[in-house]
Amino acid sequence: MNIKIYQRNYNVIELLVRGAGALLVIYWIMPWRFASHYEYIQRKDIRHELIDQVTSNISMQRLPPCEYNDILANNVNTYRTQFREHVLRGEEILPGGEYFPEDCSARFSTAIIVPYRKREEQLHAFLIYMHNYLRQQRIHYRIFLVEQYDHKPFNRAKLFNIGSNIAAEFEFPCLILHDVDLLPMNLGQIYACTQKPRHMCSALDIFRFTLPYRGLFGGVVAIRTQQYRFINGMSNLFEGWGGEDDDFFNRLNWHKIDICRFEPSYSTYTMMKHKPEKRNKDRIALLKSGYKRFLSDGLNSLIYKEKERRIHSLFTHILVET
Ligand code: UDP
Ligand code: BGC
Ligand code: MN
């Protein structure tokens, strides 16, 4: 059979062969763009990779240490049963959105930092779902919402830098940098830090549960506070959508820090639907020249104004001008 394209006749077989050839060349030049298969930590190794480290108030508890093997081994799907249901027992969550189990001493203290502006409905669903989910993990955590309280383009990375400073005031040794619209679907994706910074949402529903490219390091990531400080945090210069997470990945690489992921069935997330944000047209250029600024643009050049701090029942709310 022949097909006519732009006045030329092509044989179907010839077209298929050419197409396959082109794909092979692209794969050969840029293999990282095809990452549906990626290296990951298997379930049996997860516990060993986690860093046991807590804030001083938790370390002073006189309780038996909490166990996590059942949570990790069973990896229960939590999505359908709890999504948006009000099953909070509010009295267990401390003011500011903090929680720790009372019958055992948590082994992990995690600050969950959420960059935010004008996503009220998502925030509501996020808080209810996450407190239900996280409480089942027997960890010590606190949710910090960093709201950009100005009219400039949204600066996700800068809000993470600000959040990391506030989490440090509270002595948290582990940071989870978390989009407000992402919900974990399996309990085994434990909200604790691994030796290596971890990309947690590598099986995301909007990407048909596959990883679009190996260097994707956005959405939800876990990183030890000391590592975040060591690489000078994230860039403050990415305004608007895109690129800041890729720059973060480049920073880690540049500092010879490898990343990790858990196996795909532990890394399933769902994204609450929303309209796409306005892209930052400078993002590609900023990304390319990022290498020159890793040491000068980040935590050490961070300037902002904290307008207010509010202690809500389900989260600590920090309003900032960027
Ligand atoms: N965000 C926000 N308000 C905005 C833009 C972004 O709160 O106007 C935060 C929010 O946490 C969101 C994250 O930044 O989940 C990433 O932005 P977005 O969801 O638009 O990016 P995507 O990952 O969907 O491409
Ligand atoms: C952008 C990232 C984004 C990713 C996935 C990339 O092109 O630079 O910021 O997270 O796409 O949407
Ligand atoms: Mn989103």
TrEMBL record:
Keywords: Glycoprotein, Glycosyltransferase, Manganese, Membrane, Metal-binding, Signal-anchor, Transferase, Transmembrane, Transmembrane helix. GO terms for cellular component: Golgi apparatus; membrane. Its main location: membrane. Its cofactor is Mn(2+). One of its GO terms (molecular function) is N-acetyl-beta-glucosaminyl-derivative 4-beta-N-acetylgalactosaminyltransferase activity. It is a single-pass type II membrane protein. SUPFAM superfamilies: Nucleotide-diphospho-sugar transferases. Its EC number is 2.4.1.-. Residues 81-194 form the Galactosyltransferase N-terminal domain. It comes from the Eukaryota. Pathway: Protein modification; protein glycosylation. Residues 198-275 form the Galactosyltransferase C-terminal domain. The chain crosses the membrane at residues 12-30. One of its GO terms (biological process) is carbohydrate metabolic process. It is found in: Membrane. Catalyzes the transfer of galactose onto proteins or lipids. Belongs to the glycosyltransferase 7 family. This is Beta-1,4-N-acetylgalactosaminyltransferase. The gene is BRE4.
